[in-house]
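Structure in, sequence out. Go:
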């Protein structure tokens, strides 16, 4: 990773101005799409802490075109959402075109992000996600199909450095996407092979910013605290930041980011009582969105993230991970000492994915025929249930 620059107050740095088409993103902060996380409930909770762009979970183009009920649910939005932003994944230009037309014409989205960064085996083995930029002609066709279908709705691209260190694709892919009219690029500064291991190489973000000059470039990777975002902007010149794992169990990070980019002093971390209140609110929002049974089951993983680094004991963690009702969640968290301070250093403890490195699963011969513009046979299937 590029060495972290010394912290400077934001008032001494140029504040990035981020516009995606007609959408002004102020502060220049984006919630990264995360499967099973960035649903209506989580987006609503995060928005209470600050402005920004809050993107849905990834949905697959084929599932959307075929009207898969689960997919349509994932691509739904609350009436209070100021910007309807969805991430889309696909490997066939025709299917991508149809999916974008449905999102724009029927769902009424305001922004579409194309996923070319997912390293999950079930996606890359079909030629999708982080595997696709290795096929530049096909990549171009898919990006072009989405931009044409979206008309005035801005389309952005999220990608990784490449498949692995031997197959680096981000500069070429970034220039292609710029040529095809995307509104911005995001780079997660790891390869697909790295998954979430090691450190993000911020030097790649700086290189992409130098190579792509007509549209914004956003940085993603190892943003755990607001000071990391300022350091990334200073070190790379990027136009904004995309936050993923750093906000898991820490939705107040968006408050810190808003303060940091505005040059305001950061507020003290919330006491444990405030965190318990967030947990209760989050569980209630999930139950409102998905019903109590599914909502509580979805909350289980979040409970572990909220309590990462917090001295509540293993019994409390196990009980919350097995909770089966909202009343049980409420009873459990009410037993947490509300007066405890948030532990120093807990913000930097990893949450969410930490796995890797791992060889990337690809279609047979994928890297032997990179100039083939043909979509992979059978690639556009319901690879994610969404």
């Amino acid at each position: 990773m590029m060495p972290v620059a010394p912290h400077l107050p934001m008032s001494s740095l140029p504040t990035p101005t981020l516009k995606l088409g007609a959408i002004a993103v102020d502060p220049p902060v984006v919630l990264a799409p995360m499967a099973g996380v960035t649903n209506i409930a989580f987006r609503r909770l995060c928005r209470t802490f600050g402005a920004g762009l809050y993107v849905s979970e990834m949905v697959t183009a084929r599932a959307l075109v075929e009207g898969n009920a689960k997919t349509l649910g994932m691509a739904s939005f609350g009436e209070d959402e100021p910007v309807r932003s969805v991430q889309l994944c696909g490997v066939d230009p025709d299917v991508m075109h149809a999916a974008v037309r449905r999102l724009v014409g029927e769902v009424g989205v305001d922004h579409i992000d194309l996923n070319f960064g997912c390293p999950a085996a079930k996606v890359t083995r079909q030629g999708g996600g982080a595997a696709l930029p290795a096929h530049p002609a096909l990549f171009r066709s898919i990006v072009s199909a989405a931009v044409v279908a979206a008309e005035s709705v801005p389309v952005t691209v999220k990608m990784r450095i490449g498949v692995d260190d031997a197959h680096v694709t981000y500069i070429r892919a970034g220039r292609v996407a710029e040529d095809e009219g995307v509104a911005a690029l995001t780079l997660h500064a790891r390869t697909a092979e790295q998954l979430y291991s090691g450190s993000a190489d911020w030097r790649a973000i700086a290189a992409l910013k130098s190579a792509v000059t007509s549209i914004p470039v956003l940085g993603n990777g190892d943003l755990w605290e607001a000071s990391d975002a300022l350091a990334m902007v200073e070190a790379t010149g990027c136009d904004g930041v995309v936050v993923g794992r750093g906000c898991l169990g820490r939705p107040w990070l968006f408050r810190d980011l808003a303060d940091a980019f505005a040059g305001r002093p950061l507020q003290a971390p919330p006491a444990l009582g405030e965190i318990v209140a967030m947990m209760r609110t989050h569980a209630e929002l999930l139950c409102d969105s998905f019903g109590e049974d599914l909502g509580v089951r979805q909350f289980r993983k979040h409970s572990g993230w909220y309590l990462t680094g917090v001295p509540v004991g293993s019994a409390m963690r196990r009980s919350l991970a097995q909770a089966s009702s909202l009343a049980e969640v409420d009873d459990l968290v009410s037993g947490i000492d509300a007066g405890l301070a948030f532990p120093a250093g807990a913000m930097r403890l990893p949450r969410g994915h930490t796995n890797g490195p791992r060889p990337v699963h690809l279609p047979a011969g994928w890297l032997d025929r990179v100039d083939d513009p043909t979509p992979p046979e059978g690639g556009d299937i319901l690879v994610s249930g969404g």
